[in-house]
Amino acid sequence: MINPPAMGILKAPSSSLLYFIVFLLWLILTSGVQGGIAKDGGFRPRKLFVFGDSYASTGNNDISVRSWKVPYGITFPGVPTGRFSDGRVLTDFLAKYLGLKSPMAYRVRSIGSSKQLNYGMNFATGGAGIFDTIFPGRPNMTTQIDLFQQLIEMKAPSTSSGLNSSLALVALSGNDYSSYLAGNGSFTGSPIYISRVVNQLAANLRRIYDLGVGKVVVSNLPPLGCLPSITVSSAFQKCNSTFDPLIVLHNTILQRALAKLNNETNDAFLLLDVHGSFRFFLLATVGKQIQIPQACSLPHHLCGYVYYCFNLISCIPECQARPGSSRITMSNFIYALSGIFKFENALKPCCLGVNNEFICGSVDATTGNKMYTICSNPKKAFFWDTNHPTHEGWQEVFNILKPSLQQMF
């Protein structure tokens, strides 16, 4: 749980505490990853502020949570860092693209140097949602923004200057809906709840902007029916379409809300099509066959991939007619094409519990033996555990997102 103004460390197994200490030492000593925006001119963010859940969190959960346990972090940096992956997550790849170091997690801000804090702050926490979720102690998005506002009012190093040249990332993977369904919510009643969620999300986005942030990028929902926690029922062979109407409605209402916000703010908001990027790999690799019969329905920034890769002539006019459509670079196309053939079965996670009673990172309470298995090569898996991409999965997703980001920078 995040409780301003200070964080306490709850009791946890000694191994988790050890890895947490190692992570803190790594955080202090390392200079992080950096990159840069190739395009000159335009908006150039100097700070990155992050809100959301486990798709963007870099260590805000308590150390008793599985993201602080082995084998999380085995690809990067070699020990658990609180990220829900074997390596980097969406936040890290976006920061690198911007030429910034990944912003520090709010939870460990007290150990950061002034230089590290100058890159922004990450408030995202695994299990969080727009509203409170079934995961206790996770700060919802309103609370995360409250923490951000407190830092601004305190004139903290991360917020004391340069807010108007900062970028906010908002990444949410659907915890509000899993909580809704777990609380006996029905699919027939979901449209009303979806409207509530998106309306509150839009209000939160506007609040972030009104606090002084220059630009805001927000992800839509991934294809929840393709998550391994769902596809396990088909032995990870096919997606479950039951969730499609919910996802389509959420993403459609969100897109309209962003259009309204952009009309009010001179295009300060950008949609990151995580849904389309996930589906590009998940549909193309199931059964080791290229399966994109609905190529024309792919998001506009994927049209170039479809044209170059599959030469679907009938799609070209529609692609060209879509607002914001732009020709992708050949290097980005090559990245995506190689990614299609990289993942052996994109629906099957790399790390799994030995049975339904255990999850990735579980150990036997008596013997301490690990109760999970890991694939031989995480680079060939799109998903790390039953809900989160691998380092390699996020890398490939971000390669597809780059063309849309270039509209803002």
TrEMBL record:
<dbReference type="GO" id="GO:0016042">
    <property type="term" value="P:lipid catabolic process"/>
</dbReference>
<protein>
    <recommendedName>
        <fullName>GDSL esterase/lipase</fullName>
    </recommendedName>
</protein>
<keyword id="KW-0732">Signal</keyword>
<keyword id="KW-0442">Lipid degradation</keyword>
<dbReference type="Pfam" id="PF00657">
    <property type="entry name" value="Lipase_GDSL"/>
</dbReference>
<dbReference type="InterPro" id="IPR001087">
    <property type="entry name" value="GDSL"/>
</dbReference>
<comment type="similarity">
    <text>Belongs to the 'GDSL' lipolytic enzyme family.</text>
</comment>
<dbReference type="GO" id="GO:0016788">
    <property type="term" value="F:hydrolase activity, acting on ester bonds"/>
</dbReference>
<keyword id="KW-0443">Lipid metabolism</keyword>
<feature type="signal peptide">
    <location>
        <begin position="1"/>
        <end position="35"/>
    </location>
</feature>
<dbReference type="InterPro" id="IPR036514">
    <property type="entry name" value="SGNH_hydro_sf"/>
</dbReference>
<keyword id="KW-0378">Hydrolase</keyword>
